[in-house]
Design a protein that fits this description.
The chain is of the alpha/beta class. The protein is built from 6 helices and 6 strands, in the order βααβαβαβαβαβ. The termini are far apart.
């Protein structure tokens, strides 16, 4: 039996609040090594609980390799209360702009009906705006630990939803934007 193409979901999660890099150290290495602070870890767990409460279990998670995004994923999985079989650390997400993020999403297998990307601003916020430029709630800003859930347009032809290259960027619209 083929899954319902309209059941496809895309979840964008900005990493939770992190500590700043050491004073005066503006290196990529220092930025990649920034951990979540206590509030950030609690927010990541709340994200997972929110996903669980809303029956949004990712089939595949694409995550930046930065420490803060990996810790956000770990906290989110803790709050979700279940393991995700397929997680991928993707260096192409770190400091990426929307075209690179879209290219990353489009590599996801068609079998991943609920796809999550955990990344950084400003790229993740710009991508969310590009996916649904009419979603006024996105104008509030994509704060650390914010989640955006996109569903297929009701009028999207099912044939365009059979895989991720056909689905994003043109066939989805914002369903929910929240910061649990």
């Amino acid at each position: 039996m083929n899954p319902d193409p309209y059941a496809r979901r895309l979840i964008l999660l900005r990493h939770a609040e992190a500590t700043p890099a050491p004073a005066g150290n503006f290196s990529t290495e220092a930025d990649l090594a920034r951990p979540l602070n206590t509030a950030g870890m609690a927010a990541a767990i709340r994200c997972g609980q929110w996903l669980r409460d809303n029956a949004l279990l990712p089939d595949l998670i694409l995550c930046s390799p930065a420490l803060r995004t990996r810790q956000t994923m770990q906290g989110m999985l803790e709050g979700l209360g279940t393991a995700i079989a397929d997680t991928q650390l993707r260096p192409d997400i770190y400091e990426a702009e929307p075209p690179a993020l879209l290219a990353c999403l489009q590599t996801a297998p068609a079998s991943a009906m609920t796809l999550m990307l955990i990344g950084h601003n400003p790229g993740i916020s710009k991508l969310a705006h590009q996916l649904d430029p009419l979603a006024q709630s996105l104008d509030e800003g994509f704060a650390p630990g914010a989640l955006a859930v996109f569903n297929p347009h009701a009028q999207a032809p099912a044939s365009s939803l059979t895989d991720w290259p056909g689905c994003v960027p043109d066939m989805v619209c914002l369903h929910t934007f929240t910061r649990p």
